[in-house]
Amino acid sequence: MSVDGEGGPTALVTGVSALVAGATGFLGGRLAVALKNHGYLVRALARSSSAASRLAAEGIEIGIGDLADENSLARAAAGRQVVFHTAGRVGDWGPAEEFQRVNVAGSARVIAACRRSGVRRLVYVSSLTVLGLPRTGTVVDEESPLAAAAADPYTASKIAAEELVRQAHDRNGLETVVVRPGVIWGPGDTTFLPRLAALLRRGKMVLIGGGRNHVALSHVDNLVQGMILAAAAPAAAGQLYHLTDGEEISAAEVFGLLAETLGLPPPRRSLPFPVVYASACLLEAWARLRRRSTPPAFTRYGVRLVASDGHYDIGKARSELGYRPAIFFRQGVVALAAGALSS
User: Fold this and answer.
1) Which CATH architecture has domain 3-188+216-246+311-327?
2) Contacts of 71 (CB under 8 A, 6+ apart)
């Protein structure tokens, strides 16, 4: 395989076989189609053929399997040179044991299946939250330490899973690459921007500390480009990369641009972080008391995410992978106006 630093993988990748775990999800589905368009022989892991009907309609092979079943994972990975692991439980709500079961134990089974099937490279999607969502405006790169203590079940599970993947590198011939995106957005997003849009429509959106903090965003197509490059670049073996849009943008700008796109007034109210965080604690307590399966309007993790302030350096991905993010929130959010956000 080879890559073209500007345009992504070249025609020389034609015939490389890949499995996408999590292909029925937001990121995985976008990745599976992009891989096929780049000439890869793509198999999509799905729990059932009906769950992956949209991908089957794109001419993508469907492999039936589940993160809880290593044998089915091994069958799906058989004959594949590259596995992209995008599957997992993402979110700010749910039992800690469920995050561990899906994200940690599930990743361990993916690794084992790759070894059994002779997969050459595993590309794993982690998250920048493993660095603890700093609020100091510090510059963060791949050498920055992981969070000393995870403040939520999702982060704890991603730290543990990432460490499993990194430890698996160069064992039984398996190369591993870890990529860390920021908040993933773009067409097909059903969580981040739709939840913000709902708060804006109800007039419930509040800036935290004036919204001056910088947020790390990853457009799904930028991230897909970076993942394909990470699968092909020889230098990426055993490495990890931050894959954001590389755009310096504040939370206030994000909310304001989203409101403008929706034809709504931007949020005017601002509250200190401790006040909003305490409110999230109360909302969570009330939701748990009522045994709600869905999260409250905002959670402690959500508040920490929206209020985080870090400058995530993508220089390593630029220099080693030829990563060139091409879609930025200031322009790209307009393209979503006619999509899911308009409802």
Assistant:
1) 3-Layer(aba) Sandwich (3.40)
2) none
DSSP state of 23: T
Query: String of b and e for 254-266 (b: at least 16 CB within 10 Å)?
Result: bbbbbbebbeeeb
User: How far apart are alpha carbons 174 and 166 in whole angstroms?
Assistant: 11
In the block, tokens 């589905």 appear at: 29
Say if CB 131 and CB 140 are below 8 A apart. yes
The tokens 């692991």 sit on which residue? 85
CA distance 114 to 173: 10
pLDDT at position 6 over 90: no
What whole-number distance in Å separates Cα of residue 23 and Cα of residue 118?
Answer: 21
Residue bearing tokens 């910088």: 214
Determine the straight-line distance between the first and last CA of the chain, rounded to whole angstroms. 42
Q: Is 343 exposed, middle or buried (0-12, 13-18, 19+ CB in 10 A)?
A: exposed
How confident is the model over 158-177, as a mean pLDDT? 94
Residue 331's pLDDT is what? 87
Strand, helix or coil for residue 91 = coil
Burial (CB count within 10 angstroms: exposed 0-12, middle 13-18, buried 19+), residue 135: middle
Cite the active site residues: 154
Residue type at position 132: G
How far apart are alpha carbons 319 and 51 in whole angstroms? 38
User: Which tokens hold the place of 303?
Assistant: 């508040």
Q: Give the global pTM.
A: 0.91
Q: Is 124 helix (H, G, I), strand (E, B) or coil?
A: strand
> For residue 7, what pLDDT band results from cuts at 50, 70 and 90?
very low
Q: What is the mean pLDDT of residues 144-152?
A: 87
At 41, the pLDDT band (50, 70, 90 cuts) reads very high
